[in-house]
């Protein structure tokens, strides 16, 4: 809920200010998959979860990631090679069992502490610099709406998604 700041322009001697009434600890958790397939436009799939969930959980569980992976499998209609970071939820025993039971799912972990190899980190950077920059959110619903709108706009920009992959140094052949 605390607005991120970035650079902006103003008249010389007039520093722009955004006043924020206190610091809220409320947040929005988002999981995303950047999907790349040779000969097809890049795709972005995501699931946002507010911190006020019915089960009281403030972060994604392995079941939430499972639902996202299953939705991706249904939409993409083929095998998935999932490259992800070493988040403890990704490495849980339940998640490992789920992955082992799916012949269409192959997982390759990123090396520890390597956000520069994760294209989704580039997507978060773009979102912070565009949609949420210089915005003081009135309430959690306002934050949720802004993030969803920003991610929806990125879904229609495969050039930006390709740029996030290119920024990792990994190869991708755009359509």
Automatic annotation (TrEMBL):
Keywords of the record, alphabetical order, are: Endonuclease, Hydrolase, Nuclease
Q: Which Pfam families match?
A: DDE_3
| Membrane among keywords | no
Q: Which residues form the Tc1-like transposase DDE domain?
A: 5-142
Q: Which Gene3D superfamilies match?
A: Ribonuclease H-like superfamily/Ribonuclease H
| Molecular functions per Gene Ontology | endonuclease activity
InterPro entries in alphabetical order: RNaseH_sf (IPR036397), Tc1-like_DDE_dom (IPR038717)
> What is the protein's given name?
DDE endonuclease
Organism annotation: Streptomyces alfalfae
